[in-house]
């Protein structure tokens, strides 16, 4: 069924996705604070507010600002926005710091992105962690979601796996948002199959997304053992795991984030990715959506986005 999705509706979906992403990031990062135990969250006890968001949210806010501004990703403008808005204490990885510094000091983004990791380009999870709102915005076309995700990734991640990670997350968010518009929860198998179709079959991300589909219904520790949990901070080690969680808990945001925390690894990033996809389907302040008390505990988003 084809339909027209007006700009306001697109932005509402993208904003819900960003809310889910930022709350997941901020809550996930709490478990890197000494003394915080995942068992507390699993028992229903929340860490004390405020929960500060990290690089995942800061970059996702720049992505959303692009969509607000022009309804698409302009790579030159996005690269500069990433570079100029990066606050160093937000937990950027060393590779990202280098690329953003090069862009900030005048190196064209294609050169900066290609120079990372001895000319291989970054296959880190940074392009995936910020992209879910792009998918929600293009809920009517997984083809456009994939193309715009690729554009948003390329400015920092030149490696095919880094790009595939972003495409996978955006397509998952597009299918989730489409399911919300249709009032029809995509089954976990359908969601993962839809993502796999959009990916370059030569990538490890594709192989692991296919593997994630085989692991639906399996216990979390087994899934982490096969797919990873982001501990290696690569797209390969992060994205398929997050898609397994999002597909499994698409209608239950708190359960999805608890699964990320229970799994350990790069929890702010896995919870950001999962939160961005699940909130595109489940919403904010709705049954199964982002809980309002969780949202209230999250540090406010940057003023340059909200003012
Ligand atoms: Mg982070």
From TrEMBL:
Keywords: Hydrolase, Magnesium, Metal-binding
Cofactor needs: Mg(2+)
InterPro entries according to UniProt: ADP-ribosylglycohydrolase, Ribosyl_crysJ1, Ribosyl_crysJ1_sf
Binding site for Mg(2+): 54-56, 266, 268-269
Gene3D superfamilies for this protein: ADP-ribosylation/Crystallin J1
SUPFAM superfamilies, per the entry: ADP-ribosylglycohydrolase (SSF101478)
GO molecular function, one term: hydrolase activity
Cofactor note: Binds 2 magnesium ions per subunit.
This protein's name: ADP-ribosylglycohydrolase
Taxonomy of the source species: Bacteria, Bacillati, Actinomycetota, Actinomycetes, Micromonosporales
């Amino acid at each position: 069924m084809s339909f027209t999705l007006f700009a306001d509706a697109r932005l509402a979906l993208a904003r819900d996705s960003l809310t889910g992403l930022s709350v997941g990031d901020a809550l996930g990062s709490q478990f890197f604070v000494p003394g915080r135990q995942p068992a507390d969250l699993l028992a229903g006890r929340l860490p004390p507010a405020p929960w500060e968001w990290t690089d995942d949210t800061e970059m996702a806010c720049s992505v959303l600002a692009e969509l607000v501004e022009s309804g698409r990703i302009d790579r030159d403008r996005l690269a500069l926005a990433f570079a100029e808005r990066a606050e160093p204490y937000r937990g950027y990885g060393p590779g990202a710091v280098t690329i953003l510094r090069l862009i900030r000091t005048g190196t064209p983004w294609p050169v900066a992105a290609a120079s990372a990791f001895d000319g291989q380009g970054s296959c880190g999870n940074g392009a995936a962690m910020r992209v879910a709102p792009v998918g929600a915005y293009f809920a009517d076309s997984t083809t456009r979601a994939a193309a715009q995700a690729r554009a948003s990734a390329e400015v920092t991640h030149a490696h095919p796996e880094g790009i595939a990670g972003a495409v996978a997350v955006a397509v998952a968010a597009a299918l989730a948002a489409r399911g919300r518009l249709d009032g029809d929860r995509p089954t976990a198998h359908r969601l993962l199959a839809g993502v796999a179709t959009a990916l370059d079959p030569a990538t490890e991300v594709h192989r692991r997304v296919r593997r994630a589909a085989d692991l639906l219904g399996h216990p979390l520790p087994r899934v982490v053992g096969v797919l990873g949990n982001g501990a290696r901070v690569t797209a390969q080690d992060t994205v398929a795991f997050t898609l397994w969680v999002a597909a499994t808990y698409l209608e239950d945001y708190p359960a999805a984030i608890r699964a990320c925390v229970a799994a350990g690894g790069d929890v702010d990033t896995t919870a950001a990715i999962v939160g961005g996809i699940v909130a595109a389907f489940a919403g904010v302040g709705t049954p199964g959506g982002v809980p309002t008390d969780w949202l209230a505990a999250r540090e406010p988003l940057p003023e340059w986005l909200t003012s």
